[in-house]
What does this fold into?
Amino acid sequence: MDKETKVSLVAWLANIVLFAVKITAGLLSGSLAVLSDAFNSLTDIISYLIIFIAVRVSRQEPDADHPYGHRGAQPLAAFIVAVFQGVLAFEILKTAINNLLFGSPAVTITAFTFAALIFNMVVKSLMSFFLGKYGKEFHSSSLKSISIDSRNDVLASGVAVLGLIGTIFGNGLFDNGAAIIIALYILYAGYKMAKESMAYLMSASPPPELLHEIKATVEKVKGVKRVAKVSAHYIGDRVHAEIEIVIGAKVKPAEAHEIEVAVQEAAEKLDLVESAFVHLDYE
It folds into this structure.
C-alpha cells in the first residue's frame, strides 16, 4: 500500500471516530446544528471511501482500454464528493427552515456537547494541515479536496458552537441559524470542488504559469533555437503537453532526434507533466 493510499485510509478512519462522537452528542442534545455537523462527517465517511478507491484505481498502469492511465478516477471521485456535499446542504437547509417556520424540538446542552465539537475542531485542523501537505507532495486532487473539506468542517463546528452558546441564553433561533450557515459552507465548498473537478474531467488547459514553466524549461535545452508554441490539457489531474520547437536549419536528423528526446525528458521532469509530445521545425 503506497503512502497516498495510507493517508486516505487514515483520514477515513478518523472520520468514523468523529462521526460516532458527534452523532452521540447530537442525539443526546437534540441540536440540529450538532446533528448537521455529524451528518457532514457521515458524508465524509462515504466520500472518503470513494476517494480511497479512486486513489488505488488511479495508480493502475495504462492498459488497452485506458492508454493514458486511470488518473481521471481522482477528479471523478472529487466530483462525487461535491455532489454528496450539495445533497447534504440541501437537506440541512430544508430542516432548519422548517424548524424556523413551525418550531424546533427542545435542545439539551451538556459539557459533552461542547467537548465533542471542540474535539472535532482539533482533529479536523490537524487533518486539514497534513492532508494539504500530502496533497501538494503527491499532486493529488483527492487529498487536496479532503484538506479543504476538513478546513470547512472546522469552521462548521465553530458555527455550531456559537449556535449552542446562543441556545443556552434562551434563543432557539441560534441553533437553526447555525445549521443554515453550516449548510451554506458545505454548499460553497461543494461548488468549488465540483468546478475544479470538472476542469480536470473536461481536459481543460492548465494555469498559464505551468505553460510558462514548460516553455522556460525547454528553452534551456541545448540545440533549441526557439519555442514556437506550448499547449497542454489535463488528463485526470496530470498534464499532457504539446511543444513545438525550432532548431537550426543545418541540424542532421540524428542530432534533431537527440534534441527532441532531450526536450521531452526535460518537460516530463516537471511535477505535473505526465507526457510531452514534441514537434520539430527547422529555421
About this structure: The chain has two domains: 3-201, 208-282. The first strand starts at residue 226 and ends at 235.
